[in-house]
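Below is a typical protein record.
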Amino acid sequence: MNPEITFTRLPLIEPKEILTHMSDPRVAEHMPLLTAKWDAAAVGEFVAIKEACWSRDGLGHWAILCDDNYVGWCGFQKEGDEWDYGLVLKPEFFGLGIRISRKAIKFAFADRRIPFVTFLLPPLRNNLGALTKFGAIFVGEIEFDGSTFLKFRLETA
């Protein structure tokens, strides 16, 4: 039986859950911009920034629940004229990434505000098959906040 995947807002998650998740060094391995130590203040700032996207753009990041248990966060953040998709899971749930992303991408296809989605991945990521299965094309390498990323684009309109 497949576990139920649902999305909810980040403020509904216990801050300690997010702190434990984002403090895991296995998560940081996949996030070159995650360089500061996380504490309660960092969690509060993170949730506030993500909620500000909802206020500003009407869309943002969700907390991901698997059978009502927090497993990570994902969603869309507007960067200029582009909607960037991000997904950060607890390591023990990395295997749910494709299933969760499929659900989020389905949302993007149904939302007229999103003509395309971008994905920024660190160059160390060598398993990019899921992106090509979704239909994303490689755009090139870009520099963002001092780190290099592989940029992909998926047309949704």
Notes: The two ends are 33 Å apart (CA to CA). The CA atoms of residues 87 and 103 lie 12 Å apart.
